[in-house]
């Protein structure tokens, strides 16, 4: 019969078309073939279903235990190559310093004063949390004031000392009232001696005018502010004296509407199990303070979390919810689809359960092969659900064919599994090869995905060929007339004169157009840009992403900070100075200004200033005052004093100009402008101005008294040591061993802009090649992703094609099998270009995944084509279409669920994969038969 089959187009046996080895495909040369081994193995599993299922159950329990101990790494470092210098530097920093990124608590909505009070209260609560290492809500103003002499340039400190010496010589009556003091001051202004006769040097005069300008500026602010300010802005005066590192302490946006609190975790790990108690503890502290604030009748500001810890935490929470939703939704959709198609629960079990067990086994094996899952490999679980169902559909459809031919159940299982083996081996092996090729790329995230996916497909294949036959034998589905099985209808033999070859030009035109579209899509894909913004992958309502972007746009701070480690204070000083001059750096945070090179000289100059305050009569008088009562009459005299003082200002400016003291003239001009501003505010509402002025001078009195107490301590001024710093500053700016100094540099642009990132890192590495932090790893991360995608895609494509050719051993069948995958991939790229899509860190891997997922369709058709040499290409497709559509439907069920994910990285990948699979499905159903029509000259 074998000879007759090789020479005849078809045989009719009992009214049915008898299947023969394809004349177009390879013929087995050895009777003891792999097919025979598979048939024997499938027969054994079908004969001993209970034993096989018990072994599978034991394996599943063990795999479940392994899965329970399988960690899911959420840290970005888990995705990076470990042998990169930038990764090694970052790891060294984590070991010596701890966490590299702070959680940033953003306060918005209240007035600046309310936000500041809330920040202080929230910081105290967060410091009590065991997961919090340190909290930096503001700089310790008192500490900085006590050491302000280290922040002021030496010449300015000398200027300040001259003013203090001048004031020390003032004679102040112990019992003088405010009214008498104002009258005496007014009399002096009207009858002052010539300014040229007053013994005062230029630096002292300039220093005194700077203080006067500051007081007038603050007075005007208090007069015009909608609400009474909480305190004087002493930081303005300190900045004028060169103490730029000295600030009010709060880290604010440029418009002052947002405050930032930097929270350093005690545990440096970015893994979810470490981040969860840290983030949740901060949220609980904020919620408790929020409730307390509301109970007191005040409205709390909005509290938001951003920074890398918040992003990683939010990313994992979203991804975990999405994956669970996708897995259960995909499983339900696949079972529903199978049951609707086959109208049999047993059939659904025979297809779904082997896939489920294969996924479970492969996930358990991951513990021993990789030791962990990453957020990328975790997301692949849902995709594997759909892919794994293909093999069950292929095998069960062939078993049902054998049963329809009248074979006993056990024989049908053995024959069907063996008959489908070459197709399953080709398709499954191609998927393993594709994913295995990805496992060789340099980017760790993709490499692990490739290895995990390859093992996943392999385990599903093992489960399909062990658990599948056992289940089918134990729960044989009832055969029905409908469904998607490829039943063999009775053949209709046409007379020879009626059999003619159909025209081939439509097939040639269709194939040509398809290839042309794929080529154009592939060429156009070279223009697809890569979106480096990691924040765009988060859910649309992501709080962390929203405030991260706002920080970059509205402040000089952001969560992605460059970190410099210096072995000495001298080197840290150089780094801070050089980094501050870079246009790519918005702000530098360092304590180097507290450790100036001339610290000893500054301390020596500060000690006499403290002694001067301790001796001065005006200081004692000020310290003795209890309250400022600014009655209407006294306020009128004060305003008159200010107005008449303009004459003195004009005279001083004229002399300064004549003497060529340009800087002094500029200071005098600023003072005159402030005097005029104060007088304008008073004229608008005199009574309000009096009340506000009384509050201003009362506050000024209290703060002046406090200032005198602080400056008095300068009598013991000494250079600082790191051990003398407050713990919050020491922990932030020195490594745990105290041997290295930390300098932070905040980029001026988003690090997710590749051009801005390249400019930043070029500048940063000129300052110090040992710089680290998120921008340094992100630059390597982004390049590795693109390079690995290109390398992995080409390697996977070549490996896949070679595998298919080696297994099929027929060039014509190879072309038919590979065509849907190649055309579908090209069409997908064209659709991405037409739709304006960009590559992202999530969807860039879509093309290799589409190859691994869609290779089945062309392979199955080529396999069926070789089985029916007597049928036309379109007749074979009519027999195969139901199984191909069913296989694609199960994968699309999983991908459809993925496209609904909140996490935009996952949903974007789901859309890309869905589009790619649909393209491959259309190519398989329409163009694969057209290509076969051209390659195989069969007559129908």
List keywords for this structure.
940 residues, mainly alpha, Multidrug efflux transporter AcrB transmembrane fold, 5-stranded antiparallel β-sheet, 4-stranded antiparallel β-sheet, 6% strand, elongated, disordered N terminus
Q: Could you explain the architecture of this structure?
A:
By secondary structure, the chain is mainly alpha-helical. Helix content is 65%, strand content 6%. The protein contains 31 helices and 13 strands. Strands 4, 5, 6, 7 and 8 form a five-stranded antiparallel sheet that branches. Helix 27 packs antiparallel against helix 28 (811-834). The two termini are 23 Å apart.
Corresponding CATH superfamily of the domain at 2-69 and 313-527 and 810-935: Multidrug efflux transporter AcrB transmembrane domain
Contiguous low-pLDDT stretches (5 residues minimum) are 1-30, 240-247, 487-499
CATH class of the domain at 2-69 and 313-527 and 810-935: Mainly Alpha
Q: In whole angstroms, how far apart are the ends? A: 23 Å
Q: Structural class of the helices, strands and pairings?
A: mainly alpha
At CATH level 3, the topology of the domain at 2-69 and 313-527 and 810-935 is Multidrug efflux transporter AcrB transmembrane fold
| CATH 2nd-level architecture of the domain at 2-69 and 313-527 and 810-935 | Up-down Bundle
Summarize model confidence as the mean pLDDT. 82
Residues in helices, as a percent range: 55-70%
DSSP summary, beta strand count: 13
The biggest beta sheet, please? 5 strands, antiparallel
How many alpha or pi helices? 31
């Amino acid at each position: 019969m074998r000879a007759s089959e090789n020479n005849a187009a078809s045989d009719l046996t009992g009214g049915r078309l008898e299947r023969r080895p394809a004349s177009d495909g390879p013929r087995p040369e050895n009777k003891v073939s792999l097919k025979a081994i598979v048939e024997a193995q499938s027969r054994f599993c079908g004969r001993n279903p209970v034993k096989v299922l018990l072994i599978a159950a034991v394996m599943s329990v063990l795999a479940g235990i392994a899965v329970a101990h399988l960690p899911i790494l959420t840290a970005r470092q888990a995705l990076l190559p470990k042998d990169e210098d930038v990764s090694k530097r970052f790891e060294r920093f984590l070991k010596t310093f701890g966490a590299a990124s702070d959680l940033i608590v953003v306060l918005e909505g209240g007035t600046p004063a309310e936000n500041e009070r809330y920040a202080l209260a929230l910081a105290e609560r967060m410091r009590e949390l065991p997961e919090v290492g340190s909290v930096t809500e503001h700089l310790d103003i008192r500490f900085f004031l006590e050491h302000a002499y280290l922040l002021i340039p030496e010449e300015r400190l000398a200027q300040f000392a001259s003013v203090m010496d001048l004031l020390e010589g003032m004679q102040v009556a112990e019992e003088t009232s405010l009214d008498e003091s104002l009258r005496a001051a007014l009399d002096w202004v009207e009858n002052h001696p010539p300014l040229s006769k007053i013994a005062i040097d230029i630096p002292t005069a300039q220093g005194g005018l700077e203080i006067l300008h500051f007081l007038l500026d603050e007075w005007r602010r208090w007069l015009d502010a909608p609400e009474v300010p909480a305190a004087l802005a002493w930081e303005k005066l300190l900045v004028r004296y060169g103490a730029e590192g000295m600030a009010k302490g709060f880290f604010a946006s440029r418009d002052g509407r947002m405050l930032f609190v930097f929270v350093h975790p005690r545990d440096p790990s970015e893994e979810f199990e470490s981040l969860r108690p840290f983030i949740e503890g901060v949220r609980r502290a904020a919620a408790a303070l929020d409730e307390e604030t509301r109970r007191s009748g005040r409205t709390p500001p909005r509290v938001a979390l951003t920074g890398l810890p918040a992003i990683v935490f939010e990313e994992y929470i979203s991804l975990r919810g999405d994956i669970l939703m996708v897995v259960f939704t995909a499983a339900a959709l696949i079972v529903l689809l199978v049951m609707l198609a086959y109208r049999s629960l047993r059939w659904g079990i025979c297809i779904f359960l082997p896939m489920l067990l294969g996924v479970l086994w492969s996930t358990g094996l991951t513990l021993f092969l990789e030791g962990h899952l990453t957020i990328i490999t975790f997301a692949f679980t849902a995709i594997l659900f759909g892919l794994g169902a293909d093999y069950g559909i292929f095998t069960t459809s062939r078993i049902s064919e054998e049963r329809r031919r009248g074979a006993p159940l056990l024989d049908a299982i053995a024959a069907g599994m063996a008959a489908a083996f070459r197709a399953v081996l080709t398709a499954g092996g191609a998927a393993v090869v594709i994913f295995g090729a990805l496992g060789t790329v340099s980017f760790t995230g993709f490499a692990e995905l490739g290895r995990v996916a390859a093992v996943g497909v392999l385990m599903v294949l093992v489960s399909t060929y062990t658990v599948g036959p056992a289940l089918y034998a134990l729960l044989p589905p009832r055969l029905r007339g409908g469904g998607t099985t490829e039943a063999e209808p009775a053949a209709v033999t046409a007379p020879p004169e009626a059999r003619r070859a159909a025209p081939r030009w439509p097939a040639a035109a269709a194939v040509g157009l398809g290839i042309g579209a794929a080529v154009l899509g592939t060429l156009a894909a070279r223009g697809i840009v890569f979106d480096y913004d990691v924040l765009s992958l988060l859910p649309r309502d992501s709080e962390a992403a929203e405030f991260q972007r706002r920080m970059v746009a509205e402040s000089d701070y952001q969560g992605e900070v460059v970190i410099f480690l210096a072995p000495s204070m001298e080197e840290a000083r150089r780094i801070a100075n050089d980094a501050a001059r870079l246009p790519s750096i918005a702000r530098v945070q360092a304590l180097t200004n507290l450790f100036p090179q001339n610290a000893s000289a500054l301390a020596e100059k500060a000690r006499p200033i403290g002694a001067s305050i301790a001796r001065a009569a005006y200081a004692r008088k000020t310290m003795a005052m209890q309250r400022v009562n600014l009655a209407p009459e006294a306020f009128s005299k004060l305003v008159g004093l200010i107005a008449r003082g303009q004459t003195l200002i004009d005279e001083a400016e004229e002399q300064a100009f004549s003497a060529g003291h340009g800087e002094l003239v500029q200071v005098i001009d600023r003072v005159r402008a402030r005097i005029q501003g104060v007088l304008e505010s008073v004229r608008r509402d005199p009574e309000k101005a009096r009340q506000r002025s009384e509050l201003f001078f009362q506050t000024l009195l209290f703060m002046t008294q406090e200032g005198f107490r602080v400056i008095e301590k300068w009598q013991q001024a000494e250079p600082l040591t790191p051990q003398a710093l407050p713990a919050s500053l020491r922990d932030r700016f020195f490594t745990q061993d105290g041997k290295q100094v930390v300098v932070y540099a905040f980029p001026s642009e988003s690090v997710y802009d590749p051009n801005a990132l390249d400019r930043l890192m070029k500048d940063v590495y000129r300052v110090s090649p040992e710089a680290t932090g998120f921008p340094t790893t992100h630059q390597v991360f982004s390049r590795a992703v693109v390079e690995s995608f290109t390398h992995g895609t080409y390697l996977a494509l070549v490996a896949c094609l070679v595998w298919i050719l080696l297994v099929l051993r027929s060039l014509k069948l190879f072309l038919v099998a590979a065509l849907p995958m190649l055309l579908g991939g090209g069409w997908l790229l064209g659709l991405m270009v037409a739709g304006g899509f960009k590559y992202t860190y999530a969807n860039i891997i879509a093309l290799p995944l589409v190859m691994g997922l869609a290779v089945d369709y062309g392979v199955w058709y080529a396999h069926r084509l070789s089985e029916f040499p007597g049928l036309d290409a379109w007749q074979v497709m009519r027999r195969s279409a139901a199984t191909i559509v069913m296989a694609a439907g199960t994968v699309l069920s999983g991908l459809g669920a993925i496209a609904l994910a909140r996490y935009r990285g996952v949903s974007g990948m789901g859309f890309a994969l869905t589009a790619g699979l649909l393209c491959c499905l259309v190519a398989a159903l329409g163009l694969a038969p057209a290509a076969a029509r051209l390659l195989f000259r069969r007559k129908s």
